[in-house]
Specification:
Structural class: alpha/beta
Largest sheet: 6 strands, parallel
Number of strands: 11
Radius of gyration: 18 Å
Distance between the termini: 49 Å
Number of helices: 5
Length: 204
């Protein structure tokens, strides 16, 4: 039985590298994979691609709000047998799209591997992540560390001035504006508690 997987983490934990490595492993064995990446913040004339911080990259299909992923994957599968589907930036999926991916696993018997963030810079769940946490067959945390050495579970966003943003839209373009922190230091940076050390960013 195929499953729907959700690999979640904070920024810079290596999620995309893991996705590309897993897809490569399938292809190395003569199997076919289908890769998706969020297209919300790409221009229409840009081809979809997935790239990691260490230089790995691959072409990918783009998904946007309203896309029927079950239909797209099913049509592709009719012409080219698909052995696994990979989704990067899965936090941007709509609730219905997560259910569509579940149907890919349940009705087409194709494993679906989703990789994405769990929470935004304000500590709130992304819509896609909320749905995946609710219905995915398996949840796998990809770990990274805070500046203090503890496990990072939260992210802060830095503005152009280097200060921590405490308000604003849920999404800002550019991975370099996010920093992963443990819960303790996230609370301090967000102004919820006074800082207990001198390590940190300039308050927003």
């Amino acid at each position: 039985m195929a499953k729907l997987y959700f690999h979640y983490a904070t920024m810079n934990a290596g999620k995309t590298t893991m996705l590309l490595q897993a897809s490569y492993n399938y292809r190395e064995r003569g199997m076919t994979t289908m890769l998706f990446v969020a297209g919300h913040y790409r221009r229409d004339d840009q081809a979809g691609y997935i790239s990691s911080r260490i230089g790995l990259e691959s072409d990918a299909e783009m998904f946007r709000d309203g896309d029927d992923l079950f239909a797209r994957i099913g049509e592709h599968h009719e012409h080219t047998t698909t052995h696994c589907v990979f989704v990067d930036e899965a936090q941007f999926l709509e609730d219905e799209q997560v259910w569509q991916l579940a149907r890919v696993a349940d009705r087409l018997n194709i494993p679906v591997m989703c990789y994405g963030l769990r929470t935004d810079f304000q500590g709130n769940l992304f819509p896609g992540s909320r749905a995946l946490l609710a219905i995915a067959d398996e949840l796998r945390e990809v770990r990274t560390i805070c500046r203090c050495g503890r496990k990072a579970t939260m992210v802060v966003r830095l503005g152009d001035d280097g200060k921590v943003a405490r308000q604003g839209a849920q999404v800002a373009i550019g991975k370099d504006v996010y920093v992963s922190l443990c819960r303790r230091h996230w609370e301090e940076e967000m102004g919820r508690l006074p800082p207990e050390d001198m390590i940190g960013f300039t308050g927003g």
